[in-house]
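ingest -> validate -> predict -> emit
validate: passed (alphabet ok, no gaps, 121 aa)
predict: started
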Amino acid sequence: MEEYTSVDERRRYKRLPSSLSVQYRDLKKSVELPTGTVARNVSEGGVCFNSKEFISLACRLVVEINLPALPRPIKAISKVAWIRKLSAGDEYELGNQFLEMTKEDKSHISNFINGLMSAPL
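emit:
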């Protein structure tokens, strides 16, 4: 059995700090208007953002992320992988794992992440 000493060692993708605009809604509620927020970090495998509402673990969300220089947001079906209440205020931090995304959108997020990783400090 494999043993992990830190969360970072378990991560498949490196998460990078971000302030991208994100819209999300519950996949089961097709008539619900999306909620807007800002990403805290992003990776090729998921996105972390704050929410003013509690969302259950494993809940499926439709997530749209606005990447710079793209005319439309990338879209993914995600699963809430973890959630924690923030100590200040009534907000929650949600970690979302991408489950479904078009090949084109996967390529866009990958190019965006690789661009951030190769940018000079």
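The two ends are 38 Å apart (CA to CA).
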